[in-house]
Amino acid sequence: MRRLLNYKRILTFVVTCIMTTSVLSSSLDIYDNKSIEAKTIAELQEQKKENQNSIANLEKELKELEANQAEQQGYQKTLQKQIDLMQENLRITEEELTKINNDITIAQENINQLNSDIAALEQNVAENTEIFKQRLKAMYVTGNDSLATAILGSTDFYDMISRVEMIGKIADHDSDLIEGLKKDIEMLEVSKNALETEKLTLEMKQGEQETKKAEFNENLESYNTAMKKSDEEIERLKYEESLTEQQISEHKANFDAADAEIEAIFEREEKKKREEEAKKQQQNQVQSNPPAGSSVIPSYSVSGFSWPVPGHYYISSGYGRRWKNDFHEGIDIAGGGIQGASVCASKSGTVIGVSTSCIHNYRKSKKCCGNGYGNYVLVQHDDGTRTMYAHLQSVYVSYGDKVSGGQALGAVGCTGYSTGFHLHFEIRVNGKRVDPQQYL
């Protein structure tokens, strides 16, 4: 008995050492990776700081020039320098966000894998425990619990030798079963500790992501304010203000018709998805349930949407009411030099709708091509969300294509009912349009 207690103490000490070493190793790996990443981000932040100082100096110049209309040309030139620096800072912050989102994706994948491993280990422990219980029950019922019982119950010498040999084999089998069970439990504890470490890593990265998103949105607001003072945007706004009531009504009717077309696409895809899920459910009716009492920790949910036009950040029309009796269901991303810029998938998914029928790639105030959105791409994401990219001058993907986040889908244009070159971008959650700025 004393020997068994000593054995248990030694085993507990060894398991504790293994778990501690594993956790320390994971922590050191995270620390090393963070140091490497911190250096890169520190360089980006230093560049942003220098840009911010230049922006502040230019702001002083703008205030001096603004007072004198004769210096309007100089004002616009200085304003453009400021806008360019703001755009560069937005690009840097977006790059930082991309790095953080990539880390979040890796942490999420690690958590999902660990959850799967834990479920498998818990299943093994449950099955081996049940086998061991049955063995103990059988030994108790038959009374075959000692060597003495085997010897005393033998009819002759050969019967005794046979029974002793059998007991030895059973003992070896039970010993292997117990050792396997103990190893499974040890591995389960190590995996759960690793899962907790990954959860902490993910929470830390999500905190960094929120900080960077807030910084991006703050810089974006300043950038949009500056852009509204530029000659190019002033001229575009004057053009929109000149639209007549009839043109605005036609504009709304045109987009309503286009929305009906898109809703039909979504309904078709939803029906297809339901049919596929029903078929899959029929094929997998017999499945093993996880063992009772299993504690698989649920994974985190992150939005993971990225900016759809890298390098171009001016929002000429936000989500919400605009003009008269017109509600804008997305955001319009515009600005100088945006024509032909790459439009990228905001998130990985599958292309479920494409329109390439419009060839009228220029500013207009009337119906064309029978589609207010012109050329567009619709993407269905694995989490059920959807994104739309409209007014494209060219499209690079086809229906059914699998696309990765950041992959080019087309180029910014002015097709459909459009008053200037821009990307109309939408996000739908649970089938309803939402403000994309809350997710980007």
What does the model show?
The protein has 440 residues and is α+β, with helices and mostly antiparallel strands. It folds into 2 domains: 1-229, no CATH class; 244-283 and 305-440, Glucose Permease (Domain IIA), CATH 2.70.70.10. 60% of the residues lie in helices and 13% in strands. It has helices at residues 2-66, 72-142, 147-152, 157-227, 231-241, 245-283; strands at residues 314-317, 320-322, 326-328, 331-334, 342-344, 349-355, 375-381, 386-395, 402-403, 408-412, 423-429, 432-434. The longest helix is centred in the first third of the chain and has 71 residues, at 72-142.
Main features:
2 domains, flat, two-stranded antiparallel sheet, 6 helices, 10-stranded antiparallel sheet, disordered N terminus, Glucose Permease (Domain IIA), alpha+beta, 440 residues, single chain
Which percent range describes the beta-strand content? 5-15%
Number of strands: 12
In terms of per-residue confidence, which ranges show pLDDT below 50 for 5 or more consecutive residues? Answer: 1-8, 10-36, 286-302
Number of helices: 6
- N-to-C terminal Cα separation, in Å? 64 Å
| Alpha-beta content class | alpha+beta
Mean pLDDT: 76
Give the oligomeric state.
single chain
Radius of gyration: 33 Å
Could you spell the SSE succession in H and E letters?
A: HHHHHHEEEEEEEEEEEE
Q: How would you sum up the global shape? A: flat
Largest sheet: 10 strands, antiparallel
How do the helices and strands line up, and which of them pair or pack?
Blueprint: H1 2-66, H2 72-142, H3 147-152, H4 157-227, H5 231-241, H6 245-283, E1 314-317, E2 320-322, E3 326-328, E4 331-334, E5 342-344, E6 349-355, E7 375-381, E8 386-395, E9 402-403, E10 408-412, E11 423-429, E12 432-434
Antiparallel strand pairs: 1-4, 2-3, 4-11, 5-10, 6-7, 6-9, 7-8, 8-10, 8-11, 11-12
Helix pairs in contact: 1-2, 1-4, 2-4
